[in-house]
Design goal:
Oligomer: single chain
Shape: elongated
Helix content: 25-40%
Low-confidence stretches: none
Order of helices and strands: HEEEHEHEH
Mean pLDDT: 81
Distance between the termini: 75 Å
Strand content: 5-15%
């Protein structure tokens, strides 16, 4: 039991006979128990904020002994390339840059619902119809420049999830034509 002594209350020999004063004791056991109960209660009832994260499937790191994967050619009618630049700017094109598909010439866009999302939603719906196979959907190639921000990359990955784009890749290799487009949006 915890107690608090405030004095001994005794006197020396001789002199007047005085009645002994009782030591005043304060029992702190109940207060300590209550404090631990309150701490335990608040620890168990508090909800901690969970970090928000986005699932991102990354390939396993290849070993030096692994054979190189085969190069797979995709139909240019299925691809959309997005080049991300400085100041939240996007330039996108459908197909190949040298020979873009109809309606796929390099175009400026932004991250709004009337920007890149509108184009992605339109193409997610139309490409399986054009290809004649619902299993052959849109492929988006995301190319961030050195002046784009991490926030921009997260925003474009959010757009991929919102638009339910089946296949997308983040690539950091640029063709000379794409370098010119990147320079235009990084001015």
């Amino acid at each position: 039991m915890a107690e608090l002594n405030t004095g001994d209350g005794g006197g020396g020999k001789g002199g007047k006979v005085r009645s002994k004063k009782q030591n005043s004791k304060v029992d702190l056991t109940a207060m300590v128990d209550l404090a631990f109960l309150l701490i335990t209660f608040f620890m168990l009832t508090t909800t901690l904020s969970k970090p928000q994260s986005m699932p991102l499937g990354l390939p396993a790191k290849p070993k030096p002994t692994d054979p190189k994967p085969p190069v797979v050619k995709t139909d240019q009618r299925r691809t959309v390339t997005i080049i991300m630049g400085a100041n939240d700017q996007i330039k996108w094109y459908h197909g190949l840059l040298a020979t873009p598909e109809v309606g796929g010439a390099p175009t400026n866009a932004d991250y709004s619902k009337d920007g890149i999302r509108k184009e992605l939603l339109k193409r997610v719906k139309s490409i399986p119809e054009v290809m004649g196979d619902k299993n052959k959907g849109l492929i988006v190639i995301i190319k961030p420049t050195k002046k784009s921000t991490y926030k921009n990359l997260v925003d474009i990955l959010d757009e991929m999830a919102i638009c339910k784009v089946p296949t997308y890749a983040i690539v950091n290799e640029f063709t000379p034509e794409e370098n010119k487009l990147a320079e235009d949006i990084n001015k």
